[in-house]
Amino acid sequence: MSQNKKIINMVRIASVRRVVTLVAVLAVSAAMAAAATPGVTASAASALVITQKSQPVWAGYSAYPVRGYIDSASAIWTVPKVSCKPLLPSGTPRAAVWVGTWGGITSMQDGTAWLPQIGTESDCNKIINGHLYLGASYWMIWEMFTWVKGGGNAIQYGFRVSPGDQMSANVILTGPYTSAPAKRHFQLQIEDDSTRQFANIAVTTNKPVAAGDIVREGGGIVEDNGPPTCVYQVGGLCVITTNGLADFYSTPVQFSYVGVDSNIIGGSGGYDYFMWDMRYNGQLLAVTEPLYIRSYGGGSIFDYTIAWLRQS
Fold it and tell me: What is d(CA 211, CA 71) in angstroms, rounded to the nearest whole number?
């Protein structure tokens, strides 16, 4: 499918389903205009600032305006196929692909960040609502994540998807467009372009949140199952553990389109980027490939690939 057609799919999500907001119209219109212009690789952009970060949970890229905040994030990707080993002793690794907005580095470090996000999850031996799905299973997921005590919600599971399905998704701030703490409203939209399954979810933070703690940056990532921990014991002996990142070596995650926008809430000064590599116990689990960027007036469009290296 051509890049132009992929971006048109984003228009159809925002318009045909009658969930148009001003921010979605601005973001998609700018994206379509930018699609016809050459992009630049990270190495070729003289003024581009990309800061590399490593941590144990996710890999990908995020963009943030030099000043101000973003008001939407969008992405197109293909659901990765995972290779699963038996439950015993290999556990329940996963590869969750997310698009979302989140707080800045300071709020992530001090535990005040929030992450409205939507995506897909490629699982091995997943336990969902008390049911064990042995082998590989694939799901649409969404979440309002935060470290704030009593805030947010656990991951919610939606329709089933299949490896190789092309997904299109938006996370859109619908208000308030202020920097001061307030309960923030979002639309989380996702469509399986291969099967035409669709979800449009309205979600609100259950606590007031400052803009810098929830819409400072946005992008697309692949997330693992966290550091290995025991999830099932028999007679005091741990027999099932989470085991980090599922193997998607044969089908790297390709973000063919990631866009962030800041037309409404006052982002300015261009965009800088974080490159996130997934590293646990000193070993790289997943690595982001070089970034290709298409920038436009109120936002940034970019694409990249995330490659699997090893399971934690």
Answer: 10
As a whole number of Å, the CA-based R_g of the chain is 19
The confidence band for 232, taking pLDDT boundaries of 50, 70 and 90, is confident
* Distance set, CA 97 to CA 33, 104, 252, 294 (Å): 27, 20, 11, 22
Query: Beta-strand (E) ranges in 104-193?
Result: 114-128, 131-146, 156-160, 166-175, 185-192
Question: Any idea which of 129-133, 190-194, 231-235, 280-284 has the lowest mean pLDDT?
Answer: 231-235
Q: What confidence category does residue 297 fall into, taking pLDDT thresholds of 50, 70 and 90? A: low
Q: Residue 121: which CATH number? A: 2.60.120.700
Q: What is the DSSP letter of 291?
A: P
CA dist., res. 309 & res. 147, Å (int):
28
Distance CA 251, CA 224 (A): 16
Measured between alpha carbons, how far is 157 from 278 in angstroms, rounded to an integer? 24
pTM: 0.84
3-state secondary structure of 211: helix
Residue 91 and residue 240: Cα distance in Å, rounded? 5
The predicted pLDDT at position 55 comes to: 86
Angle between helix axes 22-34 and 3-15 (nearest 10 degrees) is: 170
What's the confidence (pLDDT) of residue 71? 93
The tokens describing 285, both together, are: 């689990």
Locus of tokens 């336990």: 127
From the list 198, 206, 217, 110, the residue with the least C-alpha distance to 158 is 198
Looking at the structure of the chain, the number of domains it has is: 1
Residue type, position 181, single letter: P
Tokens of 246: 């599922």
Write the DSSP string, 62-85.
EEEEEES---EEEEEEEPPP-B--
61 and 291 in contact (C-beta within 8 Å)?
yes
Domain that holds residue 142: 3-308
